[in-house]
Amino acid sequence: MENKNIILSYLPTVIEASSRGERSFDIFSRLLRDRIIILGSKIDDEVSSSIVAQLLLLDSENNEKDIMMYINSPGGVITAGMAIYDTMNLIKSDVSTICFGEAASMGAFLLSSGAKGKRLALPQARIMIHQPLGGAQGQATDIELEAKEILRMKTMLNGILSKNTGKDIETIKEDTERDNYM
C-alpha cells in the first residue's frame, strides 16, 4: 500500500476551464473521459476490479465507440487477468489494446485479446509470453490438485492465445514453453 501512496502523491492534476469555472481531475479520470484506460501495473484483484469497472462504465455510456487500453504490465494473477479478459469479451464496445513499455505474461495475454485489427505495440515496447507459473506446497494431494489446475489453465490460455493470434496450438505451446520475448 505504501507504494500506491507514493504514486498517488505524484499523480498529475488536469485543470479545465469552462463557463462555470474551473474543474480539476486526476490525469487518469481525464483520460477515462476520452475512453482511455491505463493498465500500468502488476495485475491483481484490486487492479482487475478497477479495470473491469472502467470497461463497464465506458460501455454503458456508449457501446458503439472503441475503448483504448494502454498496457504496461509485467503480468500478474491469472484469475484477476481473466476477469478483465471476460469483461472485454462481454461488453459491446471494441477494446483496442496498445502496448507501451512492457506487456508480459498476463499483460501480453490481454494485449492479444484486443479487438482483431486493433492491437498494437509501440516501437520500443517489449512483449513476453510464457506458460503459467505456480508454486504449490502442502500435502501431496494438494500439490497434485494444484498441478492439475495449472495444467488446465495452461491449456485454456494456450487455446485463447491461438484463437487471438491465428497461430496453431502447437506453435503456441512451443512459444510459451519458456519465456519468449518479442
Explain the overall architecture.
The protein is α/β, with parallel strands linked by helices and 182 residues long. The chain is built from 7 helices and 8 strands. It folds into 2 domains: 1-34, no CATH class; 35-181, 2-enoyl-CoA Hydratase, Chain A, domain 1, CATH 3.90.226.10. The chain has helices at 2-9, 27-33, 45-61, 78-90, 106-112, 140-165, 169-175; strands spanning 13-18, 21-26, 36-39, 67-73, 95-104, 119-121, 126-129, 180-181. The strands form 2 sheets. Strands 3, 4, 5, 6, 7 and 8 form a 6-stranded mixed β-sheet that branches. Strand 4 (67-73), helix 4 and strand 5 form a beta-alpha-beta unit. Helix 4 (78-90) runs parallel beside helix 5 (106-112). The mean pLDDT is 93.
Give a short summary of the structure.
With 182 residues, the protein is α/β, with parallel strands linked by helices. It has 7 helices and 8 strands, in the order H-E-E-H-E-H-E-H-E-H-E-E-H-H-E.
